[in-house]
Amino acid sequence: MPTVAVPQLSIADLDPAANLDEIADRVAALPAEVDAALFPEYAITGFVADDRIHDVAIDRDGPAVERLRSIAAAVDLGVLAGYVERDDDTLYNALAYVGPDGETTVYRKRHLWANEADVLTPGEERVTIETPAGSTGLVTCYDLNFVEDSAAFAAAGVDALFVAGAWPAAHSENWRLLLRARALDGVRWVVGAGRTGARDVPDAPRTAYAGRSAVVRPDGHVAAALNRDERDLIADLDPAVLAEQREFIPVLDDV
Prior knowledge:
The chain has six helices and 15 strands. By secondary structure, the chain is an alpha/beta fold. It has one domain (3-254): Carbon-nitrogen hydrolase (Nitrilase/N-carbamoyl-D-aminoacid amidohydrolase, 4-Layer Sandwich), CATH 3.60.110.10. The strands form three sheets. Strands 1, 2, 3, 4, 5, 6 and 15 form a seven-stranded mixed β-sheet that branches. A six-stranded mixed β-sheet has the order 7-8-9-10-13-14, with helices on one face. A hairpin with a 5-residue loop joins strand 5 and strand 6 (104-108). The longest helix is centred in the last third of the chain and has 15 residues, at 172-186. The radius of gyration is 17 Å and the shape is globular. The relative contact order is 0.16.
């Protein structure tokens, strides 16, 4: 039975080295039975919507992603983490899933929120990969609002969505509601990794984040959840629960 963890954490904006150290420490402390660990949107780089983000943006094959591979390999599990990706002069909100064998898949956020569009370019492709949870769609934050994306993942028959978020604390109920909706409308597991703490960077708007990481069952019920503490959320994704709910709610038969 696959076991997932969300080591909920705050992020040091514009400090990839500190964030990678924190990710390494949190992953190393997880129980041996964990198969995949999910970290939030911008977990490695943080984010500000100005020229400073160019200085910390990461190349897909650069040393920061290589460090993420070494973290995954050291404890033999998959690791999901977000960052700002540099591709020549273009920047993306990227989400990397690194398997324990080092295989790396990157999703570029398709739906940018607010001032992200001032410095970033949207991605173009939805991404589905194989994880310990089965066929898994990668989703970043505001993507949750787009029902057509959810429908596309349903048509592909994915077993889970891994969601990296940095949801504002003032709207945390929307985050929880959308995680539940995306689980139910595709009858699949949804694992949401939410940023907690606050962004407090000079000359950038201060933002408090929701945290509230959660694992949602295929029937839309919250199986396990956190509030805003920097703690680990650990849950089993029982394949029997998925099979039972898909028999009970056969929406995939009509997609």
